[in-house]
Amino acid sequence: MKGFSISLDSVIALAFVMLAVIIIATQIYNPRTPDRIYLKELTIDTATVLDKTGAIDSMIDGNLTEARGILEATPTLACMNINVVNATGKLVATASKSGCNLENDLDLQITMTPFIYEYSRYTIKIESWFRTRIE
Amino acid sequence: MRGFVITILSVSIILLVLLLAISLRNNQLSMERALIEPLPLIYAASATDSIAHNLNKIIGPGIDIEETNISTIVVIRDTMDPFNRSVNIGQFENYIENYFADATHSAISLNFSNISDEIIRVYLNEGCTYTNNHDDLEIRFTPDSDAMASRYEINFTTPKVRLNMSKPGNDVGGDMEVTLHYTDLNGTEDDTVTLNSDENNTYRIEYVDGTNIQIMVGMIDGSVVITSSTKNTIGTLVLTAVLPTPEVDTRIGYCYDAQINYVQGDVRKVTQICK
User: Of A13, A31, A48, which is closest to B31 when you measure between CB atoms?
Assistant: First the structure.
């Protein structure tokens, strides 16, 4: 009976130690930029690149090639969807990164920026998220 | 009894480890908070930069600034014309203050009162001033009084028929090199001279319709002034100014004589509209 108690005690102690090790292993201090901050900055930078390279001008003119090329050049895990809306709120052009599906439970970042093309006013709205699996 | 002591010791050690783990977790969360806090500021900076970029699309001028270890080269591309930009500026102001501000849940107030009267004024590198007066058709570039231009290259084109052209005279071996590439329907005139920056050196071009354009370089502040005697002149200008390298703490870029007041949540940014 005494031997059994000691064994049980050891097992319980070992279980506590294992639990502590698991907790520590999952809490390793890693001061990297949180994903949503990284995604927000990536989205803002992408909006700037789209604006200053003339890709949005081309989108409004009906040519999505340049904008899609910029979207495909973003990191593999990042997904983006660009909507160009005119001053009355009407959707003028849209482009998405290939292989990305917008699911309901994703952490979505939205960035909006003003845009002028031939004296007309537009708003660029970019939705971005991390894809959960690579297809 | 011994087993009980060992258990107490084990539990104590585990509690210590758990406390350490909680502390590490709290540290990580506080680091994330520290990184997240500036995000609205980043977005505010991005929005104001974007507004400046789009204002530039409406009123110009195109400006490129190149800094080397011995000089700063400023290239300004603009037009001399009497076209009224007030309507476009007003529409842009209304769009940003209402539609865009609502869409981004922010409060944006723009002060364009100093540029909507057709005088576009830009401050470059915290010292030079460039003004395009579309009312009086006068373009003026004035360098910082402590950093005079050592060289100007003026490229001006206008669709007019020339009667004659007078130049400022012979090369006087002054402190400022001036190169003019002037083009009209008669062809192109090129001139390169070295002039004194404190004198008024004038190119005067007269046209068959009785009008004239004057390009004045120098005067008391080493500036370049292009004026037209009539309000129906249309011309394109590419002005290159070679300036000394600015002080290390000088902001390289340009600002409009316009202000933005941006508020989103706790973030408030009140600044000149700059690029």
Answer: A31
pLDDT band at B266 (very low <50, low <70, confident <90, very high): confident
Interface confidence (ipTM) of the complex: 0.78
- Select the residue of B11, B49, B92 nearest A116 (Cβ to Cβ): B92
Q: Which residues of A touch B39 (CB under 8 A)?
A: 37, 40
Q: Given this structure, which CATH class describes domain A35-130?
A: alpha beta
Enter the pTM of the model: 0.81
For the record, the structure tokens of A76 come out as: 């593999």
Q: What is the pLDDT of residue A105?
A: 66
Domain residue ranges in chain A = 1-31, 35-130
Probe site for chain A from B84, B97, B104, B273 (most A CB atoms < 10 A): B104
Q: Is B131 on the interface with A (CB under 8 A)?
A: no
Q: DSSP letter for A32, please.
A: P
Kindly report, residue by residue over B101-149, the tens digit of the pLDDT.
Answer: 999 999 999 999 988 778 899 999 888 999 999 999 999 999 987 778 9
Angle between helix A35-52 and B39-59 (nearest 10): 0
